[in-house]
From TrEMBL:
<dbReference type="InterPro" id="IPR015876">
    <property type="entry name" value="Acyl-CoA_DS"/>
</dbReference>
<dbReference type="GO" id="GO:0006633">
    <property type="term" value="P:fatty acid biosynthetic process"/>
</dbReference>
<keyword id="KW-0276">Fatty acid metabolism</keyword>
<feature type="transmembrane region" description="Helical">
    <location>
        <begin position="171"/>
        <end position="191"/>
    </location>
</feature>
<feature type="transmembrane region" description="Helical">
    <location>
        <begin position="24"/>
        <end position="46"/>
    </location>
</feature>
<keyword id="KW-0560">Oxidoreductase</keyword>
<dbReference type="GO" id="GO:0016020">
    <property type="term" value="C:membrane"/>
</dbReference>
<feature type="transmembrane region" description="Helical">
    <location>
        <begin position="87"/>
        <end position="109"/>
    </location>
</feature>
<dbReference type="InterPro" id="IPR005804">
    <property type="entry name" value="FA_desaturase_dom"/>
</dbReference>
<keyword id="KW-0275">Fatty acid biosynthesis</keyword>
<protein>
    <submittedName>
        <fullName>Fatty acid desaturase</fullName>
    </submittedName>
</protein>
<keyword id="KW-0472">Membrane</keyword>
<keyword id="KW-0443">Lipid metabolism</keyword>
<keyword id="KW-0408">Iron</keyword>
<feature type="domain" description="Fatty acid desaturase">
    <location>
        <begin position="52"/>
        <end position="276"/>
    </location>
</feature>
<comment type="similarity">
    <text>Belongs to the fatty acid desaturase type 2 family.</text>
</comment>
<feature type="transmembrane region" description="Helical">
    <location>
        <begin position="53"/>
        <end position="75"/>
    </location>
</feature>
Length: 409
């Protein structure tokens, strides 16, 4: 076929116009049977036998271990490399991630990288929100869709991780072991096997499944977009509560290399807290953070975009030209801030390079006095305070723009 005849964008094609791919029976039976037991078997047992607090405790502990292995392990560690982790923590995530039954780390993370790269594309994003809520929640796993076919060309780094490959090779036995063993151990210890198999076994699996699936579905439909409107991802505080902090999905899609999803101090992101506290124990390190200035820059850019849209809708309004003038002045200032920031970043890199060279020299000649700590420290402080000033200026600009958009509402 002549490539020129292909549509310019695959987003414009109708994906369901042809026959649907074959149903994947194993997944379909797994999702529906566990859901049926959770919806009917669990309440029935609760009414006829009652549950003990130990049953609920077991449920909660295994659920959190599952959920955090997906968010901190599968997602922020393996799919995005936002930090490094000790092998013991990686092993924990690999084991309890298998219990969550969402495929091996390798398959999950390579699919997720495709989701970020081709977000919303109906053919290349494995769980494109543009194909609807059902598809992005669970539909994409029920049929053999081409976008979900194994392709590890974007996951060479993961193929070098022995824990990832061990889990991938032994995935099915690990799924069985990690789904049954905790509930079985609790059941044998308390003499109440049925209760723990239902709560820590089945109900935990269903809750763990759907809370993670919410990130692909609801977090692309429902919420605000403070950082970017170039994709469907949303920030949603309520979803963050159920997803260990992954509800700040708009932030995550623009800054996927940040180990945090909820960046504001008040945002509920237990995954971020886990990664940070593990760093105090030496279990995680190299935690990646996006500089504050870049975050503010994204927010202010969105404010400009919205203010301009509002202004366009007020054509003919006597205040419109005054508002336009104000906006233009603000925009000039914004551009100046960005230029200053670039200059500071460059200066920062240069002092860093100079410091490394000086350290090398001092080491080579064993003459520590050659290395002028004082000058470097002074330069560092000067740049840092300039950076803080700029961050503050952007914050003030954001506030002025917020006030302006309110005024135009
Ligand atoms: Zn992600
Ligand atoms: Zn997403």
């Amino acid at each position: 076929m002549d490539p020129q005849q292909q549509p310019a964008s695959s987003q414009q094609r109708a994906p369901d116009s042809e026959a649907k791919p074959p149903l994947l029976w194993l997944q379909t039976i797994l999702f529906s049977s566990t859901l049926l037991i959770a919806a009917i078997g669990v309440p029935w047992y609760g009414i006829t036998h009652g549950f003990t607090w130990l049953g609920w405790l077991g449920f909660a502990v295994v659920l959190v271990a599952n959920g955090m292995s997906i968010t901190a392990g599968y997602h922020r560690l393996w799919a995005h490399n936002t930090y490094k982790a000790h092998w013991s923590l990686r092993l924990f995530f690999a084991l309890f991630g298998a219990a969550a039954t969402q495929n091996s780390i390798l398959i999950w993370a390579s699919g997720h990288r495709r989701h970020h790269r081709h977000v919303d594309d109906v053919e290349q994003d494995p769980y494109s929100a543009k194909r609807g809520l059902w598809f992005s929640h669970i539909g994409w796993m029920l049929r053999d869709y081409p976008a979900s076919a194994d392709d590890f060309s974007n996951a060479r780094d993961l193929q070098r991780d022995p824990i990832v490959m061990w889990q991938h090779r032994h995935y099915l036995p690990l799924v069985l072991l990690m789904n049954i063993a905790p509930a079985l151990a609790l059941g044998l210890a308390t003499g109440n096997l049925a209760e723990h198999l239902l709560l820590a076994g089945v109900l935990r699996l269903v809750v763990s499944h759907h809370t993670t699936f919410f990130i692909n579905s609801l977090a692309h439909f429902w919420g605000r977009r403070p950082y970017t409107d170039e994709n469907t991802a949303r920030d949603n505080d309520l979803l963050a509560l159920f997803t260990y902090g992954e509800g700040y999905h708009n932030y995550h899609h623009i800054f996927q290399n940040d180990y945090r999803n909820g960046v504001r101090w008040w945002q509920y992101d237990p995954t971020k807290w886990l990664i940070k506290s593990a760093s105090w124990l030496g279990l995680t390190w190299d935690l990646k953070k996006v500089p504050d200035f870049k975050i503010q820059r994204a927010v202010v850019s969105m404010h400009f975009k919205r203010a301009e849209q509002k202004l366009r809708n007020r054509k003919g309004d006597p205040d419109a030209s005054k508002l336009q003038e104000f906006l233009e002045q603000e925009y000039q200032q914004f551009r100046q801030h960005l230029q200053d920031w670039n200059a500071i970043s460059q200066g920062w890199m240069e002092t860093k390079k100079a410091r490394l060279a000086a350290q090398k020299e001092a080491l080579q000649h064993n003459l520590a006095e050659q290395y002028d700590h004082l000058h470097e420290a002074w330069e560092h402080t000067r740049l840092r305070s300039r950076l803080k000033e700029l961050e503050y200026a952007l914050k003030m600009q954001r506030k002025r723009l917020e006030a302006l958009t309110l005024q135009m509402a």
